[in-house]
Design a protein that fits this description.
This protein is an alpha+beta fold. It contains eleven helices and twelve strands. The strands form three sheets. A five-stranded mixed beta sheet has the order 4-3-12-7-8. Bound molecules: the ligand Nc1nc2c(c(=O)[nH]1)N[C@H]1C(S)=C(S)[C@@H](COP(=O)(O)O)O[C@H]1N2 and molybdenum atom. Molybdenum atom (MO) binds next to loops. One of its GO terms (biological process) is respiratory electron transport chain. InterPro entries: Di-haem_cyt_TM, Mopterin_OxRdtase_euk, OxRdtase_Mopterin-bd_dom, OxRdtase_Mopterin-bd_sf. Keywords: Membrane, Transmembrane, Transmembrane helix.
């Protein structure tokens, strides 16, 4: 039995030596871990913001200003998620030799540590892959994306916190760069960890500090290119190099992309019906307004972004009736919540809540026009909600009923 173990050990060591690269070092792993940790943290925080905007807990209060806040946080969310993909792959590359550690489990603690890492890696890979696919507005899975994305994020941050706690001594040791020991053979950092043992690389290995810097530059450039060639769907100054993002700014009717068309939502007929009205309700009272009546009310103009959770956004000039004017018309206090209903009744897009902070904001409109022309059918004709600082998914199109609550 002992001989067998020794044989396996020898085999594993040989394989480990084959994988050995002087570039793989704890210092490299720590530097990559730092970048990845930063990307994950920012991605997690912006993700929470987006999640709770869409599904607030009862005590949560969100504010509509600045108007570009959600556009920024969601743009950053998708950009940091994109950057994390190459970072994660390089980081896995920097440590995967450790998978070969023998025996695979040395103690209960070691087993727990490996289980944590397995969970962290698996959850991160699924999270980043499905997130990336989602930016293409493609939902090829049977589960509700946001719920799974949200809970996986918690799995990731908790296993990440454990992982950091366990690795703290190594992180601390390699946090700052050590002066290279000239002419004294390989740095200890260049040793390959294969578990209990370390395989020391042959003397005369290339100058690691320099090649490590070259590798880190490569990783940095890879991430920067991935972000730089996609973030133009959200950040105008990058739109000239927006080569790979699923969306282009300034495309679509009135120069604004469309997320879901009227045909896809199944409302082409009802939205174009001549008898369309929007019905306002408040405390048992009810009032229906035609498009002509809405147009006869005071109109208000505002520049607001549509900022989709998928990571694209676009500024545009919207014109229509202030929601607060509709509240007044119904004799409701300005600071009332409102439930907005669409002609599209089914699914997550069928209605949205306008909390008081939004409904009383003078920039929150029942919009009738976009960029100087009546709304295109696909942008929500005859009327849609446009409010500052809200995720696109809450900017309900093809509105036919506004229920003032309270
Ligand atoms: N009724 C309804 N409203 C909707 C949608 C929808 O599918 N149905 N899509 C939402 C999403 S996800 C976004 S990003 C914005 C996009 O608005 P746009 O298509 O006018 O650009 O509309 C929102 N309003
Ligand atoms: Mo969206």
């Amino acid at each position: 039995m002992d001989r067998l173990t020794q044989k396996i050990q020898a085999g594993v060591d040989a394989a480990g030596a084959r994988f050995a690269s002087p570039l793989r070092s704890k210092r490299l792993t720590v530097v990559l871990g730092r970048w990845l940790g930063l990307a994950f943290t920012v991605c997690f925080a912006t993700g929470l913001y987006s999640h709770f905007l869409q599904q607030p807990l009862p005590w949560m209060l969100f504010l509509p200003r600045p108007v570009w806040l959600y556009q920024l946080t969601q743009g950053v969310h998708v950009a940091t998620g994109t950057a994390a993909i190459p970072l994660l792959l390089f980081k896995l590359w920097s440590v995967y030799a450790q998978l070969l550690g023998w025996p695979p489990i040395r103690s209960v603690l070691h087993a727990l540590e490996r289980a944590t890492i397995a969970m962290l890696v698996a959850a991160s890979l699924v999270e980043l892959t499905t997130g990336l696919i989602n930016t293409f507005d493609w939902y090829p899975w049977p589960f509700p994306f946001r719920t799974v994305h949200y809970w996986l994020a918690w799995v990731i941050v908790s296993s990440l916190a454990l992982h950091i706690a366990v690795k703290l001594p190594i992180i601390r040791e390699h946090w700052s760069r050590k002066p290279a020991a000239v002419g004294s053979g390989p740095e200890p950092q260049a040793q390959l960890e294969t578990g209990a043992e370390t395989v020391t690389l042959p003397a005369g290995a290339p100058e690691h500090a320099v090649s490590r810097r070259a590798l880190l530059a490569t990783v940095g450039i890879t991430s920067a290119v991935a972000v730089g060639t996609t973030a133009g769907q959200s950040f105008r100054w990058l739109s000239a190099v927006n080569l790979f993002a699923p969306r282009q700014q300034d495309t679509g009717p009135a120069g604004v992309p469309v997320n879901r068309t009227a045909a896809q939502a199944g409302v082409s007929g009802t939205a174009l019906a001549p008898g369309w009205t929007v019905t306002l309700t408040y405390q048992g009272r009810q009032r229906s307004l035609t498009l002509a009546q809405l147009r006869a009310m005071p109109q208000s103009t505002g520049r607001l972004p549509v900022a989709c959770v998928d990571g694209w956004s676009q500024d545009a000039v919207w014109r229509g009736v202030k929601i607060v004017d509709l509240m007044t018309l119904m004799g409701a206090p300005a600071n009332s919540d409102a439930l907005v209903h669409s002609l599209e009744q089914a699914g997550a897009y069928g209605r949205s809540l306008l909390p008081a902070a939004y409904s009383q904001d003078p920039l929150t409109l029942l919009a009738l026009e976009l960029n100087g022309a009546p709304l295109d059918l696909d942008h929500g004709y005859p009327a849609r909600i446009m409010a500052p600082g809200r995720p696109g998914v809450l900017q309900t199109k093809w509105v036919n009923r506004i229920q003032v609550l309270g």
